[in-house]
């Protein structure tokens, strides 16, 4: 059976309208080239200078959002620690303490721990997504992630050490 019906290099009829030249490029080495740059998803395809500028701004905002999430998590953890410590230990809570609505330190601490775990999972997911963005190996994108971390830390990191405790972002 002969499958050699000619040159199949022109795929312009297979959606996208641009043929092979419009496919996402995957760089495994550092580059400043933005030709056919895709950021994480094939739908986030950089095709012009304008889309590059908007995408870099979005990456900065995403990295800032990560710092905001870390800040929210820290504030939640601190507030819950104070609240749980102010509750009665394991004694019976009576109806004469309506603010506590029948909770004790143990049950409130367990619920707070579940919420902290969810925030922790969200932070890790977010950090890994930023890592994937960084791993485009594109210098412009890497700078945008770093600028987002910088501006995010300025806005949200007042009560945080500059030493990172997460290995990924």
Automatic annotation (TrEMBL):
Q: Where in the cell is it found?
A: Membrane
Membrane-crossing ranges are 52-73, 117-134, 140-156
Its signal peptide is: none
Record's bilayer topology term: Multi-pass membrane protein
Q: Does the keyword Transmembrane apply?
A: yes
The organism sits in which domain of life?
A: Eukaryota
Q: What InterPro entries does this protein map onto?
A: Cop_transporter (IPR007274)
MF terms in GO: copper ion transmembrane transporter activity
The UniProt keyword set, sorted, is:
Copper, Copper transport, Ion transport, Membrane, Transmembrane, Transmembrane helix, Transport
Where does it sit, as one GO cellular component term? membrane
Predominant location: membrane
Q: Which family does it belong to?
A: Belongs to the copper transporter (Ctr) (TC 1.A.56) family. SLC31A subfamily.
Name-wise, this protein is Copper transport protein
Native organism: Stachybotrys chlorohalonatus (strain IBT 40285)
């Amino acid at each position: 059976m002969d499958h050699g019906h000619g040159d199949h290099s022109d795929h312009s009829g297979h959606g996208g309208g641009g043929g092979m030249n419009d496919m996402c490029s995957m760089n495994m080495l550092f580059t400043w080239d933005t030709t056919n740059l895709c950021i994480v998803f094939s739908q986030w395809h950089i095709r012009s200078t304008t889309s590059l500028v908007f995408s870099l701004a979005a990456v900065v905002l995403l990295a800032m959002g990560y710092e905001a999430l870390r800040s929210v998590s820290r504030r939640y953890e601190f507030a819950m620690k104070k609240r749980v410590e102010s509750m009665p230990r394991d004694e019976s809570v009576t109806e004469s303490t309506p603010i506590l609505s029948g909770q004790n330190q143990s049950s409130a601490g367990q619920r707070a721990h579940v919420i902290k775990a969810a925030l922790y999972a969200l932070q890790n997911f977010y950090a890994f997504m930023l890592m994937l963005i960084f791993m485009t190996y594109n210098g412009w994108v890497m700078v945008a992630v770093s600028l987002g971390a910088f501006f995010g830390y300025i806005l949200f990191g007042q009560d945080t050490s500059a030493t990172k405790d997460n290995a990924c972002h």
